[in-house]
Automatic annotation (TrEMBL), chains A, B, C:
It catalyses: Hydrolysis of terminal non-reducing beta-D-galactose residues in beta-D-galactosides. Residues 615-674 form the Beta-galactosidase C-terminal domain. The active site is at E151 (proton donor), E312 (nucleophile). This is Beta-galactosidase. Its EC number is 3.2.1.23. InterPro entries: Beta_galactosidase_C, Beta_galactosidase_Trimer, Class_I_gatase-like, GH, Glyco_hydro_42, Glyco_hydro_42_N, Glyco_hydro_b. Keywords: Glycosidase, Hydrolase, Metal-binding, Zinc. Substrate binds at R112, N150, W320.
Length: 676, 676, 676
């Protein structure tokens, strides 16, 4: 639902920091924003020091002026609580708000996202400020949402956190004995006799760098719990501020800006506490269109497949990559429509006016250092603004009609990458991208679902590298398959429970019967070394990990081509009830995943919305009013193809007949609806 | 002597951790171990927390049960003292047992091998536990050895260590003046006036990272002494436990599991305090057969060339390499016989039953997570067990008839790699492997000897990169050569004394007259750059370091082919008394070392035991009963060749006539004795 | 003026540490030094611990003997104050002298250059020692200079520095508000309300590692100020010692040994406080002749283009590079004459006699470990000594007749490389070397000038990557051009003021009108990716950063060849008054810079002193007596060419006629003057 049902247009705007500028500049900003068709601003993201100059002193004077200006000029406002960075005076007087890092170093004042989430000072003052803001601006009906803090993240290992972690464990396990079992402390004699013997797992205790530099732990159980605890601690901070606001303005939705595949925070748990999902999309220049789309789909998925807000993107350039490439002409527009195609109901920039100092001064903005409106970037922003105005609410609250679900689980991500063995080359995101990218290349829409989500809405469910099979998951998979679903999983799945304790009896543990196999061994291959297999006449590589398995009911679709396990199964299919379950026992290449999923989708009757040339993305969003088709040209060149039906171009009003040649410019976009 | 003269069979078994399992599993374990022909177990490696739940509370109940079960089921026991990891409660109550790392960070509870070796708490409680265990199980005559702690290692820089280091220095040097001379503190005005001014050399004081990442020191003297002190401190811990046991059970030998070329501990000094040597062999997947053999030979060498125990190896896979490759079919058997061929009297695994949690759960075991006996690994273990049973004591206590000694010295290792200049590319182990690998490829048996060991047993002594020439060594080399020995050393040798102080008068210092040369300069070459020389008509590369030398009695066997020192000697030979001494003034390639040593061995009359194809290892062990010949197929393929004599196959009873074709399967092994 | 006008010969010698040796060695040293034509020594560089064994105890006995010996044997002395490393007892009793590193770790005793520059203890005792030395040796008229401490460097973040930094800021900014503006603290709510809220910017506060490992900051303003403060703090230490000496011996010049392009210290500010510049030249084996020359020219430039002292170079080899290559025969001589050609009036070595212990024992020396005079290195030193004796004062105080200035500014160096975006590949020294190397390859002499230096002496001024345009600089550039100068600058110039705050209105800020362009965007290219352009018919690459610009009066000399900005200007020329200004909007390759500068020099009428083959350096120094031409053969082979005029060979007395063939041996040198 994003900004809420009463918003009947696509919001367009971004972070605005007038407090960095003299007031005479504000009028010019208003003029330029209007020229660019901007209709909303996010305010007050980093002003704690200004709003609260001292323990009991608050100063809203400048913010009052800004709020008043925005209201009078007709801008909607997403109002931030400013708690993403604490004031310097607070750090000096209350060192408990400063974090301690994973090497045990107490940090000093500096940076942002710098507050210990278990600091009583931080919690007290943050919630108090949120409440005060809500009270002060409760009557501003142009506030469309509250934005808590900013990009929550990082981790802390201070004494406050240590104490809170012990309490968290006590609540979770009840007895030290239960905790010992879950942590498997009989190993290496790590048995705890008292909660107070627990120390946070970090580089001073259980963590270390692997030979190849990855952070690893000697006790996965406690390390997983610390990740959960750290995520929960920050989520509590979010909730404290949210509740302080809700008490005053219960009608306005509350969010915070997430960051896609951000490992430290379990966003699936967070989204349950947020009124809607918003996120900041900063793809790396080398990310593929599929990788960008996957992030959008994850963000849509955590919110129950509801629409979301693109809270931040750069209009042109970032500043924090090793090299910061300009978005090419049309690229920002293309990425904006891609966001919309995957569920965004608002398109926002960081930021409106470029800062003149500090580390983000070379980050792109709507209004550049030159302060001119005759820039390429401003022109492109203006064009997009006009288009979005044209589109009004045509796709708002539209949903993606996915018949395929890919399971993604933060606990599993953490667990796979804390695992000591079989290979540091085994990365959870790689496995997820393997399958997602194949589906994306065929324009088959995918929902990213969590381990607790229902499988029943889907024809096909893919759970790549489902190393950790949490309680209930195997049962739901079995039932899904028995009732006709197609399930796919991969190497090194079904290994451990939610405590990272191995399921006895052989791999893939609770999935053995669904898959009809027993995996006896896992062979890890070094970089540059591959096995191979033949699938339907084509040879594909097997890399990273090769599972050595026995058929226990399943049939082999392909076998290893080399080494001592030559001829043993690598891909299997097991029929169960009216469905079937596939196991892909190794990591292969993009050509294989596309070949394999093509067959799966054919068997399942899953189809793309239209047929378009390679490199053109076709995505549908449907609401109770329209089914909107987005065609997005990622090919890097002009492309022409025959229209697959009769369509109306929502931006130009043109209509196309089936068979008529459509032309997509380089980075071009068509927003269509059926008929014409 | 390994487990002692009363053991008349090859022991076969490994680490067993029944305390991680419910008792009902124990019976199944016993059944499976017996099926696999396992006859011994190592118990109690990590149970300190279980055995001592509190300051004055000890609880042996579960261990009693396990010990009783093992005795009643007929298993021999290697009993560990459990002090390899301290209990959590002890860390909380006695922080002095926690180590401080090389960056000055006090560690917290976590990991293993985590106790400060100079902690009074640790020393007190560790020795007390060892004594209590000895008293409790003194009547178990199935105890074949005591196993102190586990894989001693690491280092500590805490305040306890600082104080102990000062005492250690005081004892070594007597006066501050002597210490100043040894440390060369006149340099950079580092003169100490009081023992208490000494601080441990680490990254907060004298150590730093070189431009290419290596740890280096500004004062080699103090850094070498800290390495010696740290090794001695841990050795004292070993001795304290050993003595606590000896007071009660003087008849049972005491060991601890070493780790081959483990840099921090001077095992040559350690072995003098151990009743027998045992070690854990975990070759990296990329290690060559020669590198594995070299480790065995080192471990045999530190024990005075006596047989040793292979305390741990994995049956299939490790978990801590970046990628963990399965041992191929036959590979574990091949490596086990290789260990035996180089001096092992027992073959043991880590571990019997695979753990279900924590960081070693993906390390291979006799009994896998599946708990099944129909696995490839279990079958191979069973086969090997049966074979070892067949062999009985045929090679026990057998010695390797080596006529070649390679000198290896921990002090020299430390010193070479603390050296600031001439090249970080100059690595001691590389130089040792160069010569060892050449001899290994010709199946010439080699003893690895220490700087204090006698040279007289050998025809040829090689001292690669003998940078540090400790007192007495040059004299013994001279006498060895004068009496007919062949001595070989290399570039950058004879440079410093045991304090890392340069010998005046020109390189190679005290070896100048034996070698008949003067090395004027050392030219370090960058990666990828080489000089060259011609040796007996073949051209070889010169890399890493090129010594520029003058003949002072020696003759040149080869000269540099390029650069301004073209035509000056690179390999020299000096005749002295009835022997001769060679100097190889650069690092070359494997072909050269083989060519060169072939000539040396020919001149010395050193021969391999038999002639076999390339890639087949032939090694002999002889005791007062048999001369056993091991043929080990490392070629990676089946190999056939003519028997060089009449042999009896000790595993099958077959006999072979000279000239008869022998077939070695891939990874195959033949255990033979003369006659047939 | 270097050692002063009364020195009428080239000083030749180096660091001498007799305190490391027994007195009987001293006589041999004297003999060898005289043999090598050495006429001066630098004494007492690291003897603080010896000179001050306790709080109030000083012991000059050994130094007295050394000073007396040097005087009686006729050696001139550069006397060091010994404060480059503090005594161990001082570190133990006064921990405030120990530094705290950028990660907040308090260091312990060890290393050198280890004193906190703001430690009251250090300042007190260092100045006191300097004063005592001056008083004791005031009557030694063979002291030609005082040498304060040694290679000042590094940085400290301790509590003393924190307090001093706040005072430094208070003095600079007057009010917290001014400081907030300069630091742009409105960003991220970093507003300070009190000086005491300021903490040093380091890895515990504002600094972090970029994805590619570079140190970066979140607030450039405070980080720049900390660099300035740290440089100033050490400079204060220098001045304190200098003043203590001047009070006693005002007639003797005071220096300290600098290190060329040493980033932490703003040598342009330092040189103002030094009586003459001296520096230590340790080129990396891979440095080009141009890079070595550039360092000399920088060192000459900071001293107002006066002559300088080559305080240290190695006669043969260093010890601290990853691999330490020997200087080839003639290479030390070639480098020594190159130093002289670029302004050195003295040639000195580190060191006279090689140390026998600690980390510099493998650093080359005049007298090697062998202690022999029949070494290659000693012979070369002796030859050079004889030559320098021959030359007497022929080029002393000679100046380089440069018509080209390259602007180099420490603040700009710091700022460019603290910048978050657009590319970590953008490195200031690379940009400077691009232009310098091109000029060097044409033997066009260049002065390296600072941001405050006059531009009027030059025909051409190049300011590569002038990111930070400090106050007054743009004005001086404009006036320079208007009056007929040729000015060149590059991509990403004119962006920020001295606080790293962006100039509003568009890039290149205050240089817009001089250059006649507006740079709208900057596109950063990844490694391996290039754009291109055609300049006078030849195609050249465009890499690292591509500025996208508009002409505002300038003309385009070349345009981009690819990408969406194909056809837009990349190199521009703007005529202003009687001069012109060029903008090179990207980084190209060596061929381009040479092509481009060839044209510039032609237009400006700038010429090399003579025409010589590629790879032969020709450099002139002129004093009121002679114009001396140095021809230096860097080609790596013998080279012959026709003399461009009538010359006299100052080393041999030979004369050459114009057109006569001159032969330069490999690494050869000719020192010539006009006529013959």
């Amino acid at each position: 639902m994003a900004y809420g049902k009463k918003i009947k247009k696509i919001l367009y705007g971004g972070d605005y920091n007038p407090e960095q500028w003299p007031e005479e500049v504000w009028q010019e900003d208003v003029r330029l924003m209007k020229k660019a068709h901007i209709n909303m601003v996010t305010l007050n993201v980093f002003s704690w020091a200004a709003l609260q100059p001292d323990e009991d002193v608050y100063d809203f004077e400048k913010l009052d002026k800004i709020m008043e200006l925005m209201r009078s000029e007709g801008f909607l406002v997403c109002l931030a609580t400013s708690t993403g960075a604490h004031p310097a005076w607070m750090a000096r007087r209350h060192p408990d708000i400063l974090r301690t890092d994973a090497e045990g170093r107490k940090r000093r004042f500096g940076g942002r996202h710098n507050s210990c989430p278990n600091s009583p000072t931080y919690r007290h003052y943050a919630a108090k400020l949120a409440g005060k803001l809500a009270e002060r601006y409760r009557d501003y009906d142009n506030i469309v949402a509250w934005h808590i803090s900013n990009e929550f993240g990082g981790e802390c290992y201070c004494e406050n956190c240590e104490r809170a972690f012990r309490e968290w464990l006590k609540k979770k396990y009840g007895t030290v004995e239960n905790m010992n079992r879950a942590f498997y402390t009989a190993f290496w004699g790590h048995t705890f006799y008292d909660w107070d013997e627990v120390v946070p797992p970090n580089f001073l205790s259980e963590h270390f760098r692997s030979q190849s530099g990855e952070e690893r732990t000697m006790f996965q159980g406690i390390s997983l719990d610390y990740r959960r605890f750290n995520s929960d601690s920050m989520l509590e901070c979010f909730c404290l501020e949210r509740d302080a606001i809700r008490r005053v303005m219960p009608q306005v939705p509350v969010t915070t800006n997430l960051m896609g595949f951000y490992k430290p925070l379990d966003y699936q748990k967070w989204a349950k506490e947020m009124d809607f999902v918003s996120w900041d999309s900063y793809p790396h220049p080398e990310d593929s269109p599929a990788e960008v789309a996957l992030n959008h789909d994850l963000m849509r998925g955590i919110g129950g497949q509801d629409s979301f807000v693109l809270m931040e993107q750069t209009p042109s350039v970032t500043n924090w990559h090793p090299y910061n490439r300009l978005k090419r002409p049309g690229e920002m527009r293309l990425l904006s429509y891609q966001a919309a195609a995957h569920g965004a109901d608002a398109i926002q920039f960081f930021q409106i006016r470029r800062t003149m100092g500090a580390c983000e001064k070379f980050h792109g903005a709507v209004i550049d250092h030159a302060g001119r409106e005759d820039t390429r970037v401003f022109r492109e922003i203006t064009q997009l603004g006009a288009e979005l105005e044209t589109l009004q609410d045509v796709f708002l609250e539209g949903r993606t009609p996915s018949e395929v679900g890919i399971l993604f689980d933060w606990d599993n991500w953490w667990a796979v990458e804390y695992s000591a063995g079989p290979s540091v080359r085994m990365k959870y995101l790689d496995a997820v991208k393997d399958y997602y990218t194949a589906a994306f290349s065929m324009n088959v829409p995918v929902d990213i679902i969590g381990a607790e989500d229902a499988l029943t809405p889907y024809k096909v469910v893919i759970a790549p590298l489902l190393y950790m099979c949490k309680s209930g998951v195997a049962e739901r998979i079995r039932s899904f398959v028995e009732n006709g679903g197609i399930f796919i999983t991969t190497y090194f799945s079904g290994i451990v429970d939610e405590h990272d304790l191995v399921y006895p009896g052989g791999y893939p543990g609770p999935l053995r019967d669904v898959l009809g196999i027993w995996v006896e061994e896992n062979d890890a291959l070094p970089d540059g070394e591959e096995n191979c297999f033949v699938y339907e006449g084509a040879q594909y590589p097997a890399a990273v990990l090769c599972d050595l398995m026995h058929l226990c009911g399943a049939e082999a679709l392909a076998s290893y081509g080399r080494d001592f396990y030559q001829g043993t199964p690598v891909i299997t299919k097991n029929t169960l009830g009216s469905g079937c379950a596939y196991y892909v026992g190794t990591r292969s290449d993009a050509a294989f995943y596309r070949h394999f999923l093509k067959n799966i989708f054919r068997d399942a009757g899953v189809q793309p919305p239209v047929t378009v040339p390679e490199g053109v993305e076709a995505a549908v969003r449907g609401n109770d009013r329209n089914n909107v088709l987005f065609l997005l040209n990622h090919t890097g060149a002009q492309t022409a193809f025959a229209a697959g039906g009769a369509w109306e171009n929502l931006l130009t009003g043109e209509t196309y007949q089936a068979g008529q040649t459509l032309v997509l410019e380089k980075n071009g976009v068509l927003v269509l609806k059926n008929g014409g």
